[in-house]
């Protein structure tokens, strides 16, 4: 059940280059949001922004009924959102999409692999599985040092390796290079980031169990318009809707 | 105040229905609000075989509008009949089925299949989809082809046929007259205008299909003009659409001559828009001095005939 | 970085020029900024006799756009030559004269008169005005008529002729090919789409003329699509327009295949928009990796031919 | 010379039903604005409001570089403007159009006839001619008592008669009824208001000297687009542009 929630901004702060963390307070319905799900946010008005923007849920404070989102300013919608103030109310459909099926799987060790704005959903995931007693290792890739965020937050939950494309912070290269170098042990991996990264990760780890979370331009955000389809990998000519059947998929379920 | 409107094959509680392709087969929105509130539902286009549609990205945002190039993705008419219609038949809402095809034969076969069912109360003949290589819009810009497909579909349909017109034409009145003469029971207008957006960084069209259909408030003045013009030259009812966001916009379409309206893009901006408009409509009608929906239809025509379309 | 562009008859300091009808004869804007900054100026349509145009109201606001039905008001070609061109000849900016008419003969006579002067460096043949009862758009939706008026005007013109195309057609490529074959030196596209807005209180169309031409960002996706399509099928240069508000929009038109651009509606929103865009353009070109305006033209075409227009 | 000024709202207050008074501070260029001229105001953005809104100058404080406007909320643009706050900056073209030619005419007594949102420009006019020693009588028409504004402001400058359509304040009826009843003496009259009122006033006072100020939907606001023309009354088939040759005209110069 998707709700249209009026969310009050209780905090908005820049945490890295072009990267905003925002905390949004809503009704008690938002407590049920799970790691991997997203909020479909209305920005501006119909003249300026006809379509909503999907942004992952990076954390939920159940007591205070607050969800955290972290987003990068890449275009006019995120720019508009970044200029909103504490006290402003934004309209969001929440919770949208599927979550990481952490209640259905058993594991001792998990590897989290995030890239850029794919990092935020992994944080709430890390918190929840850590609470379940899972040992969490994360490898987080960014463009360069000024884009890095949430290193200490992830470090509190387990080992956290940072990699930057230009080597200005942590390892130099791509997340896959770090996987090669460290060869971490894990039962399941969870990955979110740009499609080229997901492709590289899932092909490197192709015989391992894992979940990925993918992006696509969306219309409705609730499964009705077929804007966000992705072909399935089973040769059936089938497809999944990222907004409804995803954004979380088993690693080899869909064709990237 | 009564919002009820009777159209060929359709008794509508109110004149508000989601537009084809913008509401799937109703299932997803049934999680959002009670579908029984709607005047009708126009379901997503059906073709004979299942279609995957175009590559992604399939949508882009434009000023006061959007582009889409879904490409008629659907599971094929038999799967729709077996998997989607039973769900919809549980609701007390008339279902209008949008029919697409690459050939006259396909339109005819899909219509035959759909009108075997009792759930489908009317056909919306989609001769105006700009997003497929074959069929669709080519029928919608040639009056003779449009008339041919209309009469052949009429011949096999057990329910009234509304022909959905394309705005990508220099003469919408000629198209409307041609399908009226060919036996159409009603018109549905307008479909989207063909447009494009280019990404400055990638230097490529944003949509994988390059072009897409422009919808939303950006096109409302074009839709209003076409409904107004067509209203002066044909007598069959019109389902008006194109950029409706609120109850005031609905009234503008009624004044232009629409008998009912469909809401497309607005559903994405606000999934509750249909029930919200239904609730607001009586107040807006009253505010502007109307006693019913019926009372407002065509009331924007007071000063003779207008026709700016040229062949 | 050089913004210079050479087109038939025109050496442009930069590709930015105000669109016809949106800048009068330049006089009023000369109070606002130095006209010498402009790439060119396209002046308001000229007809043989003076015309009063349509009744007021003549403009309405729409979502991301506006409707206008000025109706080619102008003092007649001789008065323009005597009273307006001398003022413009003091500036170091090429003048493009927009020519309108109700008959082929009128187009020919107006062109003859204008090209007697040395101030007019090119003709923009307006076969696409939606706001007059006779002429204008009827030439713009029929390829044969368009070719006829183009070749007759070419025969008498001492300067290059750019034909201004109407988007109110199902096949813009056919129109473009027809006028290219008839000798057009360039294209100017797009003019406005015919639209209407109805006032809910008065229950009448807001414009006295009922319908008007839709312009502004609302129509930009249609303009981009048409420029892109036409670019793939004709080789003469294109002056692109339709909804440009800023330097990014200019680049989008260049990528689509325009060689220069015109700015219409945006002048009303911000009378300084032309010089502001000229100032911003080098930075935007650089940001997206281009070394000059020339360098960006047509760079949005990388994946073969697109044609969604149908006859 | 028209300037694009960034005007800071220093006061915004509702002074009657749906009627807002706003004081706008700008550069010293705005000091030159004269009675009868208008500001062409940008509201919202291009998506919501493509066209600017013309609003008359109701007063100018030359020392503080503040212009006052008074407007009625009748549609989405004025609604948007009414929701702006003190400190917000709005973009206005100023000064636009012609002014009442008070420096060219000599008079002892002036009659001001205003209707509704036609009242504001008359206030700055009244102030200026009063300073020149002219005796000012004003007749101000409104729909009903709740719409009345600026009665005391006008009363400070001379005799002020209020008339409401429904008689809930002052005289009952139309401004022309009050002219009939009071038969005031004057050398020149100045009138601004809805077109039907201007028609009634100018035909009643047709052999008197007077100036009227008229409205029309505008595009550019500076004389370039020909949206706002009005035919002249001299049988020449001529026309004037309201935004540039007007909004102030001699009473019988144009066809209403
Ligand atoms: C399920 C999901 C979760 C996401 N979570 C996050 C997150 O937590 N943090 C974050 O910074 N970003 C996230 N994104 C990406 C985010 O949606 C885009 O960055 C954002 O929509 C860009 O909007 P814009 O107006 O700034 O850009 P513009 O380019 O101006 O947007 C134009 C249109 O394209 C769409 N669009 C552009 N880029 C993307 C993209 N990468 N993915 C989907 N739509 C796009 C926009 O939604 C809009 O409709 C997520 C995307 C998806 C699909
Ligand atoms: C020279 C001049 C001076 C004016 N001075 C004042 C004033 O001091 N106070 C005041 O309250 N109003 C004044 N008006 C009227 C004011 O411009 C309109 O009320 C306002 O534009 C309405 O905008 P809206 O968005 O609220 O209405 P909408 O109806 O939503 O506007 C839609 C479009 O129509 C135009 N429009 C609607 N009504 C009018 C109108 N009456 N005149 C001109 N354009 C209109 C708008 O500008 C806009 O382009 C003046 C008009 C003119 C021409
Ligand atoms: C995402 C999307 C998909 C659409 N799919 C269809 C379709 O399958 N069949 C059809 O006839 N029209 C389709 N349309 C057109 C709409 O039904 C409608 O005619 C058009 O969008 C104008 O209305 P609007 O401005 O309210 O969206 C689609 C429109 C959109 C935005
Ligand atoms: C008020 C107005 C008047 C116009 N007059 C003319 C004209 O006289 N001749 C012409 O060819 N085009 C005319 N146009 C069309 C513009 O030149 C331009 O083609 C169109 O507005 C699209 O560009 P835009 O979206 O930047 O305004 C006019 C447009 C407007 C808004
Ligand atoms: S965004 Fe509409 S189906 Fe996914
Ligand atoms: S508003 Fe453009 S000429 Fe007056």
UniProtKB/TrEMBL annotation, chains A, D:
It comes from Aquibacillus rhizosphaerae. FAD binds at residues 53-56, 77-78. This is Dihydroorotate dehydrogenase B (NAD(+)), electron transfer subunit. PANTHER family: DIHYDROOROTATE DEHYDROGENASE B (NAD(+)), ELECTRON TRANSFER SUBUNIT (PTHR43513), DIHYDROOROTATE DEHYDROGENASE B (NAD(+)), ELECTRON TRANSFER SUBUNIT-RELATED (PTHR43513:SF3). Gene3D superfamilies: Dihydroorotate dehydrogenase, electron transfer subunit (2.10.240.10), Nucleotide-binding domain of ferredoxin-NADP reductase (FNR) module (3.40.50.80), Translation factors (2.40.30.10). It holds the Pfam family NAD_binding_1. Heterotetramer of 2 PyrK and 2 PyrD type B subunits. Keywords: 2Fe-2S, Electron transport, FAD, Flavoprotein, Iron, Iron-sulfur, Metal-binding, Pyrimidine biosynthesis, Transport. Pathway: Pyrimidine metabolism; UMP biosynthesis via de novo pathway; orotate from (S)-dihydroorotate (NAD(+) route): step 1/1. The keyword Membrane does not apply. Its cofactor is FAD; [2Fe-2S] cluster. Responsible for channeling the electrons from the oxidation of dihydroorotate from the FMN redox center in the PyrD type B subunit to the ultimate electron acceptor NAD(+). [2Fe-2S] cluster binds at residues 220, 225, 228, 243.
From TrEMBL, chains B, C:
Pathway: Pyrimidine metabolism; UMP biosynthesis via de novo pathway; orotate from (S)-dihydroorotate (NAD(+) route): step 1/1. Gene3D superfamilies: Aldolase class I. Its cofactor is FMN. Pfam families: DHO_dh. Binds 1 FMN per subunit. Its main location: cytoplasm. FMN binds at residues 20, 44-45, 98, 126, 164, 190, 216, 242-243, 264-265. Belongs to the dihydroorotate dehydrogenase family. Type 1 subfamily. Catalyzes the conversion of dihydroorotate to orotate with NAD(+) as electron acceptor. This is Dihydroorotate dehydrogenase.
